Amino acid sequence: xxxxxxxxxxxxxxxxxxxxxxxxxxxxxxxxxxxxxxxxxxxxxxxxxxxxxxxxxxxxxxxxxxxxxxxxxxxxxxxxxxxxxxxxxxxxxxxxxxxxxxxxxxxxxxxxxxxxxxxxxxxxxxxxxxxxxxxxxxxxxxxxxxxxxxxxxxxxxxxxxxxxxxxxxxxxxxxxxxxxxxxxxxxxxxxxxxxxxxxxxxxxxxxxxxxxxxxxxxxxxxxxxxxxxxxxxxxxxxxxxxxxxxxxxxxxxxxxxxxxxxxxxxxxxxxxxxxxxxx
Length: 279
Ligand code: PDD
What we know:
Bound molecules: N-(5'-phosphopyridoxyl)-D-alanine
Oligomer: single chain
Strand content: 25-35%
């Protein structure tokens, strides 16, 4: 019961020291990862996360150590061992363990996983929104790969937190791309805008779900580039991720957004219904 961890081929103690010094995951960030939310004991949108994992792995020429069925069986066993019903599953696959060299060594990929209690979402923030700051998108150009290399994201989030903000929203050449760990949306005149799913952003599972929900509710969605000025003048702004779901934004670097957010609210309610229905 409680937090559970798996490394390579066995379940390990969450505090156990198991990662060898020559693991490419921590030497190079040479790997990919996923985060899945579990609601009422059920992993949410698991196939979509595995699809993206396989795309990320293929993009870095990484062969998965196990087939999807086996990975899902490990996830299932981990959840059973943990007995956590509202959980966050983190897993990563690295290129493996080998004496340090830049080019790919001949070694087997390594799968690692943790299960922990999901953070409860603050209902006041959900209602009132959270402040964000705009940051320069100084990441590499393959942000569609969910790579372990998160140093720019970590630094952007740290700067945002130091300013009392919940998220850093990236701009690249004046165009809003996404958040440091989320996808960004703006609503103007009843239309939802979000950056197209190019190589420049992570193709968020929550993003895709929210777009689907909007279409079902006859809310127009434009996957188009928009600039920071448009973003700051939006009627509503929100960001999405597996951990925060649909999070309204109250202000960006001092620019306040209107307090009524009909579109954000509709989407956030519809999203909740999806996982409640699954329980
Ligand atoms: N982050 N963009 C970035 C850069 C992200 O890191 C994430 C997710 C998203 C949203 O993707 P999804 O809806 O599939 O969670 C967008 C995860 C949660 C993390 O790193 O913890």
